[in-house]
Every structure is written in C-alpha cells, then in structure tokens.
Amino acid sequence: MLNIVDVVVADKNLATMLRGVKAAGLEIELAKAGPYTVFAPTDLAFGQLSNGTVANLLKPENKIRLAGILNSHVTIGKLNFKDLKDGQLLKTINGKELLIKVSNGKVTVNGATLQGRDSEASNGVVHSLDAVLSMN
What we know:
- There is one protein chain.
- Strand 7 and strand 8 (124-129) form a beta hairpin.
- The protein has one domain (4-129): FAS1 domain, CATH 2.30.180.
- The longest helix has 9 residues, at 15-23.
- The chain has helices at residues 4-10, 15-23, 27-31, 43-47, 53-57, 63-71; strands at residues 36-41, 74-76, 89-91, 97-103, 106-109, 112-113, 119-121, 124-129.
- The protein is built from 6 helices and 8 strands; from the N terminus they run αααβαααβββββββ.
- The strands form 2 sheets. Strands 2-1-8-7 form a 4-stranded mixed sheet.
C-alpha cells in the first residue's frame, strides 16, 4: 500500500501540497510508520492565497516557515471521515489545535471544508481541504 507521500503524489489536485512537502523536507517524516491524518489543502486552496505567497514559501530560505504551515495540517493517529466528530479538538504535530465541526454531513476543520476524504495510506489517511489552515 502507498504511504502518505505516495497518496499525495497520486492525487492530481494536491500538486502544490506535494511541492510544499518536498520544499519543506517533510517527505521522510510523512513516510514514517505514523499513523498520521493529513488534512491536505488542494491546489485551489493554495490558489486562494495572495499572489506570490506560494512561490515565496517554496523558496529555500522559507523552509522552516513552510514546514510549520504544513505541519499544522497533520495530526498523529488515523482518523477516517466516520471518526470525525462535531466539536472534536485535534492536536497537530506542531502543537496547534484543529476544531472539527460536523453539520448536515459536511465536515469542516478550522473552517475549511473537507473535500476529498479517506485516501488510505499504509501509514494513515489523507483528506483534502478547500483552504489552507494556518499561515502563521
């Protein structure tokens, strides 16, 4: 079975996330045993950022900032769609909190809507989001 990095590679809507993971040097971490749950912003989500933001973050001198942003989309443990509960608080691998909201079958994570869900990996699961969660 594919690991999380392979799942991101295989999803054509996560090309920007993949570029970010590589630029931030997170491929090794996200290929480890985990398990992890990744809330991956789609290319459209990254496209909503102000002009030039993504290109700037991908520069080598911004590697630490980019890693921090991407790590705020990753939690320890595998949570499939059915496991996400309204009001649930998840802690990311860099210590930030994500608030899950469930309403009428729609799930949001810190206000970003879950798009694709339950992309299974050998070391966890990937869900795609319509927004980038954290820019600080």
